[in-house]
Amino acid sequence: MQIGYDRVQFEIDPAPERLLGVLTPNRVEVSATGAEAVEPALDNPVGDVRLEEKVKPGQKVCIIASDITRPMPSAVALPPLVARLNRAGVPDSDIFIVFGLGSHRRHTEDEKRRLAGKLYDRLECIDSDPDDTIRLGFTEAGTPVDIFRRVVDADFKIATGNIEYHYFAGYSGGAKAVMPGVSTPEAIQVNHKMMTDPSSYAGNIDSPVRKDIEQAAAMLRVDYILNAVLDEHKNIIYAVAGDVTAAHREGVKFLDRLYRIPLSVRADIVVVSAGGYPKDQNMYQAQKALDNSKHAVREGGTIIWVAGCKEGLGSTLFEEWMTSYTPDEMIENIRREFKLGAHKAAAIAMVMKKADVYLVSELDPVFVGKLGFTPFATPAEALAAAEKKHGPGSTIYVMPYGGSTLPIFEQKA
């Protein structure tokens, strides 16, 4: 079989009698895409009435939108939403968009225009400001609920975003637009340090990180959400609208039908590819595939991580942590102080604590060894070494699209 590596395909030939499965996304019928997928969601809200029946003329409406680092196509999703607000008697002058920056840098005006599309010339479009917040209280975990003042002061708050697996919040979307979206680095630090909790993993809706996020959103009182599920090309293939929690959960169900793979047994060896170009251009990007693969491998097993990494590691702080600390030190450091960039190094460290990682990449083999991985030139060579290590009866899973396939171990799968 073939698996992607940069712009080429590598061949591997696992023994059929030991191959437990090739894990790929499920086939799900899609009836509409883009804006045409948004309209049915707005027509049939989950857990709430239609937006037109809820918002009132004279209210100042805030739409929280994703920043430039997220794949949500706001320029496609937001016009149908704004059209509903207009029909309900809310003029453009009473609607504004806040791009939730979280810990990220501010946008240029060109980036805002790209995110908002034609709405940029109609509505006020601003970035969230961590230096201008109102404290609404604290969550049970002690996270300060510090929210951008303009969002707090709005009469009607709509959270938007896309739903995908998140490796420690369980899922993105829903209340995540509020925390970390329009919060502060200090609050994010308290929330995100829970990433080392064993329950903080992709596909777990009860992740302590997500529970904390939803408590924060409840204090703000989000009035409505519009969330989308995207395909591999970042096109909207499904959308949900309505109550901040109920609608989000409906979107989660669709995502699970598409990408969740229940397993009843873990393998000795997992061969995982990020899918090739552009998903494996650097290690920072390809990390998601590695993280997903950890659910399919047994304790003490081997993961063969196929990622070109032509551009290196992809983040200065990420590289600093990967080259300066042991896995135990990275995990302990992130518990003490969450740092964006370093958090992915800590996530990789947690995988390394469970299994050996054989890396097939363009990186210098000596450098790969210093990172704590075992370097190989091809997946076939790595597979032969892993089979020799685990013996002739070793079992194998192959994940050709690791970033968009989530294996979840279920006793009764």
Provide a quick synopsis of the model.
The protein has helices at 35-43, 51-54, 74-87, 109-116, 149-153, 185-192, 208-220, 246-259, 283-293, 316-324, 327-336, 342-354, 365-370, 379-390, and strands at residues 2-5, 8-11, 19-22, 61-66, 95-100, 124-127, 133-138, 144-148, 156-162, 165-166, 170-171, 224-230, 236-242, 260-263, 267-273, 297-306, 356-360, 374-376, 396-399, 406-409. It has 413 residues and is an alpha/beta fold. It folds into two domains: 2-24 and 264-409, Alpha-Beta Complex (2-enoyl-CoA Hydratase, Chain A, domain 1); 35-259, Rossmann fold, CATH 3.40.50.11440.
- Helix vs. strand class: alpha/beta
Q: What's the multimeric state?
A: single chain
Strand neighbour order, sheet with most strands: 3-19-15-16-17-18
Characterize the biggest β-sheet. 6 strands, parallel
What topology does this entry show?
Layout: E1 2-5, E2 8-11, E3 19-22, H1 35-43, H2 51-54, E4 61-66, H3 74-87, E5 95-100, H4 109-116, E6 124-127, E7 133-138, E8 144-148, H5 149-153, E9 156-162, E10 165-166, E11 170-171, H6 185-192, H7 208-220, E12 224-230, E13 236-242, H8 246-259, E14 260-263, E15 267-273, H9 283-293, E16 297-306, H10 316-324, H11 327-336, H12 342-354, E17 356-360, H13 365-370, E18 374-376, H14 379-390, E19 396-399, E20 406-409
Parallel strand pairs: 3-19, 4-5, 4-9, 5-6, 9-12, 14-20, 15-16, 15-19, 16-17, 17-18
Antiparallel strand pairs: 1-2, 7-8, 10-11, 12-13
